[in-house]
Amino acid sequence: MQAPTQTIPLELAGAEEENNTSELGFGESSQRIVRFDLQSEGNHVLAVSVNYNETVHDSEDGLRSRTRTFRKLYQFIAAPCLSVRTKVSEFPVQEQKKVKRPQSTKPLSFALEAQLENMADGPITLEKVAFSPKQSFNATSINWDASWPSTEKMDCPFLMPRDVTQVAFLIKQQSGGEQTTAQAETTKDGRIILGQLTIRWRTSMGDPGFLTTGWLTTRKRS
Q1: Cα separation of 209 and 217, whole Å?
Q2: C-beta of residue 133 within 8 angstroms of C-beta of residue 162
Q3: Residue 73 CA to chain centroid, in angstroms?
Q4: Are residues 216 and 196 in contact, defined by beta-carbon separation less than 8 angstroms?
């Protein structure tokens, strides 16, 4: 498989022998399966080479074997199946009336909102949307997979082409010990790194898909 960034040899899978050879009679066929996770957009080329021995009849030598080979190229373009747009909002810190905490020890809270749009040609079903926070934060899902008291379990979102759904997470800084904003990992321009969003889905044919965003950050802090 020739991807936009690299060329990867693929292993064949099938019901036949492990040495990837089989003997075919007249009218018989053989099937092999290759699996490849599409991780980059753009042009892909799958090159398939087949080597086989053909038994032919020769008037002088009788039956003899002749080696043949052929190669086919399958070209396709990988496009994103899901579009993700995120927004991070910071909650104001509530101060106690009698006891005021120093600015550096205030635990921070954020709301992460994400709009997910189906960019595929067919419907998809979202199976899981999870947020993996940095070590200094905890994340709580407020989506269909959350555990709500006295409520029935909700079905996974089903998105037709160009349908949009929204998910959200509450992100809180751990308050144990001497936790400070300085202990949270930040970028060079002062943005706090919160974590990554992972999304898994299946198409109408049952094919799985997954996507992991880059590191999500807050706005630049003054």
Answers
A1: 25
A2: no
A3: 26
A4: yes
d(CA 35, CA 37): 7
Residue 118's identity, in one-letter code, is N
pTM of the model: 0.66
Three-class SS state of 26: coil
**3-class DSSP state for residue 103?**
helix
R_g of the chain computed on alpha carbons = 27
User: Measured between alpha carbons, how far is residue 206 from residues 110, 123, 202 in Å?
Assistant: 35, 11, 5
DSSP 104: G
Report the distance separating Cα 166 and Cα 218, nearest Å.
19
Q: Are 126 and 176 in contact (CB under 8 A)?
A: no
Q: What is the pLDDT of residues 57-103, one digit of tens each?
A: 776 766 778 888 999 999 988 888 899 999 999 988 665 555 555 54
Nearest by Cα to 4 from 47, 48, 49, 45: 45
Report the distance separating Cα 108 and Cα 173, nearest Å: 5
Q: Based on the number of CB atoms within 10 Å of its own CB, is 117 exposed (0-12), middle (13-18) or buried (19 or more)?
A: middle
Residue 53's identity, in one-letter code, is N
Name the 3-class secondary structure at 98: coil
